[in-house]
Amino acid sequence: MGGGLGREENRFGAAPSAAGYLYQARLALFLCIPHVNSGVEVEVSVERLDDVSFEKDGSPFELLQTKHHIDRVASLSDASPDIWKTLRVWAEASADDPSLPSRAKLVLVTTGEAPLGSAAALLRPRQAYEAGTKRNPKLAKEILTAVAETSENKSLRSAFTAFLALSDAMRSSLLSAVEVVDRQPLLTDLGVELEHALRLVAPAGKVALAREMLEGWWWPRICEVLMANPSDTIPVGALEAKLDDIRELLKRDALVADFEHAEPSDTEIAEYDGFRFVKQLHVIGLGGNRLRFAKRDYYRAFVQRSKWTREHVVLDEELEKFEQRLVEEWEPRFVAMCDSHPGSESNDSKLKQDAQEIYYWVETEARLPFRSITAKFLNVGSYHILANDLRIGWHRDFLSLCREESSDG
């Protein structure tokens, strides 16, 4: 085995190719959005009939070639490899099936830019032109034919040959079907474009979450169709159904419990040993699996609440009101327990037993709703968060016994 590529060499070797394939898959998702709710059964595929293709009733109506450039400096000149490698694909396909240009739109999507007056610029979609300029496939054909006939670029000879092998009428038909969509966002910028496209699906402040949920569903589907033999398609109707699910989940009153079944690592479990909520449980004689479950619920509630707050899914005031309800449910039970042990010593076994009864109520019965969610992990974990702040406790003397425990800050 050799020494392998250096970091810079690798960046300009494998990385652009990998980015190009990821670009195709992410772009396909973005281009599906306009077809949602169209009422037409459309299917999309990647690396099947073209880089990206859209089909209806088993027949392609839009074929896309994609050219992604990490450095964004690509220029679609009349002798550009991006132009000619694309034209070769479509010229050979049109030679095999002369009806293709009349029934399918052929789109080159590129992060590069078509210079003013170039053939590529003359093939932009009509809606892309500014006042005073217009689409002109006829002139583009003349420019490209001249390049193919006179260029001495040996690396593009097969592309020139495929283009010139078409009759003049077929070249006109081909270029009438071609659209060059240049200056498109990079792979990393497509996320912003997706979020803009999803702004009508998600409530304010939740567009990024909607995109994350949609892409989390999309990538496994892309992997499945790429691995299928023969290659498969994804119905846009499936995307529409997923968007409906996301829309329901992200309604103002709906919350997504991402961490309901999350498992903290052994390291995280061990780190909680110095926390006050753990000390509170030690004080009443609790240990073993119940102590581990307590740490797990604390972890789940803490990371879930943190995510909701960070993503502005919930407001701080909502959490404060929820915690106040938890305190008010705990308070009469705690006071009643204290009243039944007015002169007991702190280490009295009956006092500890009655304190465990309050905690048992939290484990098994305390289930207050937080907006649309009534979940054990959120209730129990939030009680531990309160216990960690010494706002509630189980033992009658929890304040004096646990106040000095502050290793968690």
Shape: rod-shaped
Q: From the helix content, strand content and strand pairing, which structural class follows?
A: alpha/beta
Give the helix proportion (percent range).
Answer: 40-55%
Measure the end-to-end span. Answer: 52 Å
Poorly predicted tracts of residues? 1-12, 405-409
> Helix and strand succession?
HHEEEHHEHHHHEHHEHHHHHHHH
User: Approximately how much beta-strand content do the residues carry?
Assistant: 5-15%
Query: In total, how many domains does the architecture comprise?
Result: 2
Indicate the mean pLDDT.
Answer: 90
By DSSP (H or I, 4+ residues per run), the number of helices equals 18
Q: Topology, pairings included?
A:
Layout (H helix, E strand, L loop, with lengths): L6 H5 L2 H19 L9 E5 L5 E5 L2 E9 L13 H16 L3 H4 L1 E6 L8 H4 L14 H14 L6 H8 L3 H10 E4 L8 H8 L9 H21 L6 E2 H14 L16 H6 L4 H8 L4 H23 L5 H24 L9 H16 L11 H13 L9 H5 L7
Parallel strand pairs: 3-4, 4-5
Antiparallel strand pairs: 1-2, 1-6, 2-3
Q: Summarize this, please?
A:
This is ABC-three component systems C-terminal domain-containing protein. InterPro entries: ABC-3C_CTD7 (IPR046913). The protein is α/β, with parallel strands linked by helices and 409 residues long.
